[in-house]
Amino acid sequence: MDVITVDHFWEYVSGKMIKEFYGSEKIDSLQSQSNKPLVILNENYILGVPRIRQVKVTENSCEIHGYFRRLFLHCYSIFGTQNEDRSSFGLNQPTAWTYTDATKTRSIRYFGTLTSYSGGGYYADYSLDANKTIELLQKLKDNLWITRGTRAVFIDFSVYNINTNLYCICKIIFEFLPPGGVTPNYQFTPATLTPLPNRWHWTMRILLYCFCIYALFCLFEEMREMIHFGTTYFTLFWNYIDMIVICLTCLLFFGTEYMRFTMGSYVESIIEKPSSYGNLEFPRVIYEGVKISGAVLLFFIYLRTFKYLNFNRRMAQLNNTIRKCAKDILGFSVMFFVAYLAYAELGYLVFGSETDDFRSFGQSMFTLLRTILGDFDYHKIHKANYIVAPIYFLTYIILVIFVLLNMFLAIINDTYAEVKIDIAIAPKEIQMTEFIMRKYRNLLKKLGCKVKQDDEKQILINTNINTIRDALIKCNFDDREIEMYFTRYDIDPLKDLKKQDIEKFYDVFIKEDLATHKTEDHPVTMKDFRRQDDKLVELENILVMVSQKVHDLMRAIENTQNKSLQL
After folding, report:
1. What whole-number distance in Å separates Cα of residue 89 and Cα of residue 392?
2. Which 3 state secondary structure label does DSSP give 23?
3. Is 380 exposed, middle or buried (0-12, 13-18, 19+ CB in 10 A)?
4. Which cysteine residues pair off into disulfide bonds (predicted)?
5. Does 85 carry a binding-site annotation?
6. Which one-letter DSSP state was computed for residue 357?
7. By the 8 A CB rule, do 175 and 183 touch?
8. Using one digit for the tens of pLDDT, what is the confidence trace for 127-144?
9. Does residue 422 have a known ligand-binding role?
């Protein structure tokens, strides 16, 4: 059912949720269920009992406009730390009617739709007996436990599935918004809090310890480098990646060990007190922290491998391209983000009040990012403002996507072409792959295996590209001319020329040379002689014309000088 009012909330909590917690049998049976554990879907056992908790705001936590002060005596603002209500109310009995701090409830702050809610509040624990739980909820409803100041109600419980050894920390949230109405939400976090001590578990622990020992060794080496290089150490990008990897490794290790030593006490306390709330919120936070730390650690470890991609020229192109275009991209990013933030602010101000995708500035930025990827609902903004929407959408597509993003690609493509030329004209060094293959062949040869070795002639053929490059450099060819030379004869400067490539190159070269010599040995015909004679006559006429113009110019200069002398 859809929970949108307070009546819907009480109907859901006292009806459907009770049936899910306590089973489908008749709840008003005389048989006591105090010794029966709560089960969901026949296989998920609730640890302890659920807890219902609410947070409130104080009266007059917002300011009423002067026009309406006579009509309304009280107002209730959005939940915040400063306006949280901590006073007792109603029956003035613990703990549903008196405030309990988060240090005692041991609940974690929750980030909701409009704001975040503290871990304290007014709470009541369910019972193992369904009838007692129904009486508790009816008592809360009859005595107006939910008031105008209520901003959120939480139903917390934890379940355990014995078949998969999985815990699930559950939180069902009902936010009572200041404009009125209820917004339901949920948060289910599955977690392996107590792993089984099997072979796989011990293998993972041993690998974790080995990895931590290696991280300590790396930390020692980083400290030595820091002492040796001083401030220069902090100018290298990869050193920061190394420190992040080491810190995340330590965080992962301590979080894992903390869970291993403390989870037993949490579970034992829940088993000893089955009628109390089974609180596993703090272990959930630790588990999520460990999981996120491991994921981020793996990301940076993969990122760290980019440093070692320079084992040959092709793999080095990526690193060199990123390094060379970093400043250009950083400078252009300023222009890009100015336009991006301007459109995000415009969308938030124009469409934010009517469109969920632009309800906040951050959400507006995320929506525009989705637009770049092609995920955008134009009909929503068109419905919100049919005049601004088409102008906003078209200008964003043209300016940001068609112009600015393509300029990013142009910068990268241009830099990649420069890097490719630089690598091509650089002196050839022994490649890591060649070095490994050479050592591997030597090892097989020592073991008595017959290994086919490249003869000197074949090696010479395969390295002729360096000879061509060196010869062109000695002939005062610059880098661009060498690149044009390779392009003309279809030579890939990043590949070693094979025998067939050399033969093809020489065939083209010899054909061009023969064509040149054939042109030079061609006899002069009468037609060529007449054409040459016509060109000489034309040249003579041009010289006569130029001589006449020079003569006229000299005469004009003499006349000018005579006039100046007469004056």
Report:
1. 51
2. coil
3. middle
4. 62-75
5. no
6. G
7. yes
8. 988 899 999 999 999 999
9. no
